[in-house]
Amino acid sequence: MKNYRITTLIIVAVVACVSTVSAGATEQEALKDWGNLERAYKDMKKDIEPVVPSYAPNIIGSDYTKILAVLDNYEKLMKPKFQKQLDEFSQKYGKTASEINETMKTTVKDGEHPSTSAGDIYERLKKFMDNVQQARINKSRTLVQDAQSIQRTIDSFESQANEKNYDKLKQTLGFAIKFNPENKTAKDMLAKVDKQRADKLAAINKRIDETKWPGNYKNFAGPGDSEALAAVALAYLRNDEGWGGNKKNTEHCLAVAIRGNWGSHKKNILGQTVQWYLPIYLAVYKDTDEESVARVFELSVLTREGPGEKKAPPFAGVTVGNIWKIRRKNVPGGGGGADSQTVASDGQSGFTGMVFRLALAFGNIIAGLLAAAPLIRRKVPKLNSVYEKITPLSNMIGVVVLAIGVITLLIAVSQLFLLRFVIFANIVPQLTAIAVGFFLGKELLFKKSHISGKAGEAVEKTQEFLKKYDDKMKQLERYQIPLGFVCLVVGLIHLFLAPLPLF
Prior knowledge:
The protein is built from 17 helices and five strands. It has 503 residues and is α+β, with helices and mostly antiparallel strands. The protein has three domains: 27-210, no CATH class; 226-343, no CATH class; 351-496, no CATH class. Strands 1, 2, 3, 4 and 5 form a five-stranded antiparallel beta sheet that branches. The longest helix is centred in the first third of the chain and has 39 residues, at 118-156. The termini are far apart.
């Protein structure tokens, strides 16, 4: 009987509490509170959803300055208002979604209310606000991890220990603290950055000041002279598209020194070397505030690849190793005079060389097809449609092919004393292009010019010069078809076999 009375008292007390909670809120007041809560949640989504999603404690985006401005505004203006609204709402209607929904069920009978239950809105708004707080903590933690990664890079690679990376380190830690002012790790790291920067850069500058240019390897075994090879390697790198030949590259090749003997870079299945490497030092400097400092790359320049390839230029590639720094004044020619030298392309390396090689190859192929047309059209009737399109342009094509042959021949001859000269690549395709180009374009070349002035005089002198060899060129007409096939074959070989030793 006693237990029954206690149970009854507890039930009465619970009912009284529920009645007390709802007693202070009329239906009209409950509807108003419900609507206001929904508007608060919509305002939160509108202003905060772009930087923190309502469903997860994550930061969206990488413009931390703008994100922090949004979050700081939320902390000052929105959060206090919404928190007060949540507290007052929970005091009136309950602290959980089920309690709130039950209270609203007994309080609101006929009034128009939001379609989403009051308990769900309450939980969503509360969760959203919790997500914002946790997102700041999570982002701060992630930024510290980013800062630690930057710190490891600076500590591991001397080339990365620079003002730019130290500024990035400080900025990252600064954002980490702004997202979470209680992040002790970020505060401790930031407090040490300036001293670490000063000590590290002082030590690096001391080593740079004391570093001397190594010069050429004294025990170089050859073949080749180390001074001459260094000059050829410097010329190659200054014209290579990946180094000095790239106009967008602000780094300038300054000096080269041989740092070791020739070595085998690649072998065929028989164990025979088909490509050699020559280890070198390359000093470069950049047009920046630190132009008094040169970076030295420990490279290897590679010969062309093919059976029987010699330990000799021309070079066709580069492998990169370690990098260190030196004062430009300690490098031969470091004052900048050496960099002003111009070095011609060898016609084989870099982007420009590739363009000339392809132009020479396709020029020979097209000129050969035109010269051998009488036989090819008879043997391969399917090509008649192609010839109908290109034959009317034969004079113009001949002049263009002739020009390509002359230009590439001049480039090849200009490299005779600097780089290895290969007759099958630097003479044969050029001569076939010149011969067949002259044959095809003769009518256009001897056509009376309407150009006046010095340009017209130059054209006339050129025509007079060519007329001296007109009789010899007429003799070639008897060999038009064989010459066309030779030109065609040379073009195909030059196109597909240029990397091999013969080309």
